[in-house]
Amino acid sequence: KPLVFSGVQPTGNLHLGNYLGAIKKFVALQDTNDCIYCVVDLHSLTAQLVHQDLGEQTRSITAAFLASGIDPKKHIVFNQARVMQHAELAWIFNCVARIGWMNRMTQFKDKAGKDRENASLGLLAYPSLMAADILVYRATHVPVGEDQKQHLELTRDIAQKFNNDFSARIAELGVGVEMKVGEETVNGFFPITEPVIGGPAARIMSLRDGSKKMSKSDPSDLSRINLTDDADTISKKIKKAKTDPDALPGEVEGLEGRPEAENLVGIYAGLADMSKEAVLSEFGGQQFSVFKPALADLAVEKMAPVAGEMRRLMADPAYIDSVLRDGGNRARVIAEGTMKKVREIIGLLGD
Ligand code: AQP
User: Which residues are listed for L-tryptophan binding in this entry (predicted)?
Assistant: First the structure.
């Protein structure tokens, strides 16, 4: 049975990239699937151990999930630190994965920068914890932005290596399930997870530089639209967004070599649930002086209600904490069920 899992780090204000690339997909998937959505607070320690407002930020991401329409009664919403089985499985995956696999991760290279020797060991092992987040629930589908694609491939590699290394034990204990790996049908314990990436907003770029992704850690606030921005700020940022002097093309091919224009068209498409083609058939031939105000109106129309609901929820931290506590309790039951079997497969003694 399909099970959806995804997570967001409490590392700063959420932005339109997080919303269109991930959270909007979380909402769309909840009608037809069982879903588990997690605020991955342990992940946020990899870049910065001491956070001033970690609890507050964790509540704020939770509020964004709920304000966007995720139903915490039907699905599970919680923060990672409440379910210690994530860390336990991550340790085991640290022993499954190879250092070379981690060293190849572009996110590690980007975030560690030149001084790699000084990056935290947690930053290197980040994808192992991410694999554990997903596989401790034996989730089958993971909606994420394009930037997480490589980590999801690594999750598949870890699942496959675990299934291979322990194939005899898995068969002996009868805990495997039949699954297709490429052309082959194998009996494995962990599913080979499918990424859910795509659509016109899988990679939203900075509003100031079309070659950089929109990111929480960009020092320029003008580079991103925060989920908490008010209508005036959204309009101002779109008005100031970098563009080129040409009119919009009528066809998607005409966006090639025009990253800023492509990005704004992608944002419009993501917000309006349209394809880029459809946006261009409406705005092709128009100047940015026409397109930008239309985009600003659309962004305000779609984002202002989310921001308003987030503010309302943040005024009641006890409610948010109760959602996280309840979600954590439900998640822990599933995660412990998996870990009991994992300990048995490996041969670790426990109850
Ligand atoms: N620019 C983006 N376009 C589309 N999707 C994006 N995501 C992030 N940026 C974009 C997706 O949002 C989800 C949550 O991200 P995260 O907070 O867990 O990790 P991140 O990728 O590190 O987020 P940021 O904002 O880019 O933070 P920094 O500045 O720390 O790098 C993920 O599904 C991600 O793909």
Answer: 133
